[in-house]
Amino acid sequence: MPSEIVIKVNNLTKKFGDFTAVDQITFDVKVGEIFGFLGANGAGKTTAIKMLIGLNRPTDGEAQVAGYDVYRETEKIKQNIGYMSQKFSLYEDLSVRQNIEFYGGIYGLPRKAIRKKTDEIIQKLGLQDRAKKVVGDLPLGWKQRLAFAVAGVHDPRIIFLDEPTGGVDPVTRRQFWEMIYESANNGVTIFVTTHYMDEAEYCDRISIMVDGEIKALGTPAELKAKFSSETMDDVFIKLARG
Amino acid sequence: MHRTFWAIAKKEMYHILRDTRTLIILFGMPIALVIIFGYTISNEFKNASISVIDQSRDDLSKSFIEHLTSSGHFRLVTTGKKVEDLEHAFKAGQIKMGVIIPPKFETQYYRNNTVTVQIITDATEPNYAATLNNYAINIISSFNKGDPALSSAPYRIDIKTRMFYNPELVGAYNFIPGVAALILMLVSAMMTSLTIAKEKETGTMDLLLVSPVPPLIIILGKVAPYIILSFIDALIVFAMGYYIFEVPILGSLPLLLLMSLIYLMVALSLGVLISTVADTQQTAMMASMFALLLPTMLLSGFIFPIASMPTLLQVISRIIPATYFIDIEKAIMLKGAGWEVIQQSAIVMVVMVIVLLLITWKNFKIIHK
Questions:
Q1: Candidate from B7, B18, B369 with C-beta closest to A105
Q2: A160: closest CA among A151, A150, A171, A173?
């Protein structure tokens, strides 16, 4: 099956003064793929992701997201992507229902569609009893799953997740990933940054960033073979130590 | 476009309605401020004890003393012949003010067209002394006017226009415009800077910026509820002034409200400007406290008259929006002035809005590059 490319990045670079945060990175992501974007803190992951979603303007290089250019067509990119940041991206003082409706609203969905989507999401997450409760009272794992569902409220082609599962245990992370798989099976491309190596194993392909550069790219199995390591942890440590 | 705007404005309303503290600041604060200023920090006084040393004892000096005491503000406790008598009365705490009428009062008055009356006040309470002084000057000047023989006299006692249009010297006339300026600044500037800084702090701002909503709509949507709420606050303050403290609105009410709206825009742009710089609510809070609220209170002529400030502070007071707004309010409410009188101040405020929005726009672009 020839897979269509949905994110195409070529020598993308971002400099802040003399400091090069992202140094000529190149990679492709295919439709429906779960692409893991790994790296230590400060390796340039967030800067890279911000260029792809139109929050930061690249210094040099090319990139297309959902077929649109990151320099000139950020507005069209924004219509086609969802984003969940490392902070929860939900309003803690609004109810579950109000949060979903709000995101539906800012993506310009018609009122009817918003109501339908909201009911669907509440149903799917089993939050019927808590729909009118404020989000701040939900357990962390629930908030993260809700945030993911909200990031997909407008049926985007790609969902960017920036360290989505910080601070929860592996079981809760696993539940979160069930949702990711479901979306990917429906053809949504997932671009996820993480520094949990168990999560890296869940990805179709991963790239590992060190000091602004992509040092390794491939499936988890390929990378483990290449660096003759048992686990992704080993691969990561070998790369990070250079 | 309008759909996303409403989504944001609606969400902002949910935030406001959910948060009791915000509601208290929004609606409790104006009422509390008007009541506090109205009943406690009033400069008004009645029956201040005074003593008059009448060295002339002619018809005119008698009617002068009568004029002074009939105002209801001064109560004559002692009279004396010698200036030394005053000092005794002051030391004994019997009087707060002494008036010395020179010998040959009547003769000098009609022959020379000018006569000097000395007023001595107990300055251990400087503010009170200054107020007494002002009242006395005002009352003496009205004595001048009351005499038709002197209406064309070339010599007049100089008085401040501030007192001119407040003939009964009611404190409320001064504080209602001031409280309105303060409340609008508080609600429009501080609350908006806080709400935008909050989105930055919690990270939800990133999410809004990743959505297709243009930044301008995000800001407008967030600010819209505060425009309405602070406008309601202005109405509350004016209504309380009118019905409780009998502060008149002699001029056009629509003009007053239009001016409030322009001032509100200045305050909002200041709030948005602060929020482009401040990344946390705490920074936003401190910035609006020190850069906006304190100057509005202290340097706008609300509490301390601008004329009695050092030159440097007078210059600073000229860049404070509230200075212009209070001028406009007083002109419209107390003098019944129309557009011709206030246009200069109004134009200054409009220019402020434009300049502030341009700076904000530039800042916003730099941040999201």
A1: B7
A2: A151
